[in-house]
Amino acid sequence: MLVHSRAGRWAAWALFLVLFLPLFALPLLVVAAASFAGQWSGAFPSSPTTGHYAAAVRGESLQALTTSLVTAVTASVLALALGTWAALAAAALRRRAAQRIVDALFMLPVAVPSVVVGLAVLVAFSRPPLLLNGTPSIVILAHTVLVTAFAHQSVSAAIVRLDPAYEQAAASLGARPAYVLWRVKLPLLLPSLTAAAGLCFALSMGELSATMMLYPPDWTPLPVRIFTATDRGSLFAGSALAVVLMAATVLVLLAVSRIRTRASYR
What we know:
By secondary structure, the chain is mainly alpha-helical. The chain is 77% helix and 0% strand.
């Protein structure tokens, strides 16, 4: 830690606990407790039950979870490909002003509310020649637009830290630019690529504002179902769905972190 004295470290830990518990841990614990509650009329829940989870992993709820996973994985892959390509292209530009313009263009979707992005996608793709309204593709497209900026920024930051000696050594041995990219540069960027993919996936799994404007009835992601359940007063069922959403997201992120860890040792 940056604090070297014992008293200072204890004070830092105490401050961390004071801020972490009420702001982050306690709300999550309340949601977890509500997911098992049959009633909650006092200070603590009562009539514990697992019925909410039984309903959360079957039928329309299971389909909503599958929809969220498919949407998040597809959007993350597309965002990672677009963001990486843009970051590599921007790094190859000689003028700093041109690099800033590229960065600004990719950061624009996160500089405005996500509901504005959803409306823009809805207006742009609700008429020919590219009619996507009412299809799952428009939801995936909106998620891709929203998370590409994070992939672009993560990869751009990693490119700046790369040692150019590796590329120069490969080029001096006669390697073509495409070979240098695939066998030298991208492997060095793999830890940052996996981190960006995990971030994009987590953000897509929790996206609600733009999704509410775009989703068709047969493509309902889990956040929309959680919102619908809580809006109807089914707080305990919505809490169980929220816990399932968090668990699915954490499991995927743990899998991605293992890929990142192995890449870091390469």
